[in-house]
Amino acid sequence: MRTALPALRWRRPLPVASCRQGAGLGGSEAGPLRGPIAAIGRSGPAAEAAANGGRGCHARAAVGGAARCRARGSERGGMAEERGPAVVTCTAPVNIAVIKYWGKRDTDLILPINSSLSVTLHQDQLRTTTTAAASRDFTEDRLWLNGEEVDAAQPRLQACLREVRRLARKRRGDEDASPLNLSYKVHVASENNFPTAAGLASSAAGYACLVSALARLYGVEGELSEVARRGSGSACRSMLGGFVQWHRGERPDGRDSVAQQLAPETHWPELRVLILVVSGEKKAVGSTAGMQSSVDTSPLLKYRAEAVVPERLSRMARHIQERDFEGFGQLTMQDSNQFHATCLDTFPPIFYLNDVSRAIIALAHRYNAHHGRTKVAYTFDAGPNAVIFALEDTVDEFVAVVRRSFPPASNGDRFLRGLPVGTAALPEELAAAVVAEPVPGAVRYILHTKPGPRRGMSKETKRQGLQMSPGGKSPSGCGKTQGEAAREMVLEAAGSGCWGWRRGALQPARHGTHWAARPA
To answer: Which InterPro entries does the record cross-reference, listed alphabetically (predicted)?
Structure first.
């Protein structure tokens, strides 16, 4: 049964300067949480009282708030202090492949039929935030995605959990001095600040974030891209920043199918990314089912993996090393086109692009033809949303072209998001050569970002409170900050109310983790 989490009341985000030891989760504006959600994870009188509207516990943003919260939680039948869950929150980035992965040679281990290469995007604009908690009081594993409970018994999630626990057991050896028992069940809440299952690599960021959180929770360090791959193949690329290659590998056990950074995000500081969001709807054919169908029925896919991709990988790595946008852009578009050709070669055919996607492709080619060189390059994953690569000095003009071609229907003030975009006058000669019949509202909004590191957000984004987009709200409808919403989902499900957090000890962590904390 899928349980939807109700919207929580708005709480002012704490500035980074307030993240100190003993600080609570938020300000005093938050009201009590009532109803069924407060009863999840409890039993007996405590569950009945919570379901009937018993007060939730909300720590104030002050030293000592944590202690008050714990005491109040115990009074109402919540978890006692010594039995509170261990909790970790982290973030992970999205990656966009420029040499695509499509098809598995082993569906259980998620081993690809070809290597791939991607660009990790900056977490200031696109990220997944995941909170994971483990406790002896949890009776089952539970998972919430964007505020809605989903099946935690799904094989890929359990595979990641088993692998992290195996590594933790190996690391601890025979002497298990950790207070966190590996048999404890986990509760996980994950939020994306971008459309899910719409061709924007949500599963990659999601599983990278999940593995980072679980690894931090269980004290696992070292190479984790192989573990992330067990959840979603492309997730291994989100474990690293900048420009990343996922090696196909040759071993049947997949131990050599791992991600490797080719260059950091600082290698090409002028490179920019425009995401033209055409649809936020879930795609009709998921990537897992789609690629299996292609493996079974597409001769083109087999030829691509064996004869085309190896040479393209070498060329793409060279273009990136030399910061050759002309070569990088052309090859990015060619590989995107061939990927979607294999989808059409699949039987029955798979259609991930729509009419607006094809209009964007045509617009990019007209724009490049007008300038006599490749100034913008499109790529599409398994969905209709376009990812446009360009150099910084091209962004303003091309955004003006897109705005003229796809005028915003009603969200003009929210049409441009992410990094600032300057105002560029559009020459009539360019408009006449490039802009076809305008299609109002076809592009919902444009998100401007750039390549990013594996670790978390910038200080400025953290200072602003990790506000969700679009509209500054989380996909679950919660007006809270992303991290707060995810934490509340797990902690309320755990029946623990709001815990105080030792924020003074928060540290950037490895493997894409932004920050982590445990209950005070």
So the answer is: GHMP_kinase_C_sf, Mev_diP_decarb, MVD-like_N, Mvd1_C, Ribosomal_Su5_D2-typ_SF, Ribsml_uS5_D2-typ_fold_subgr
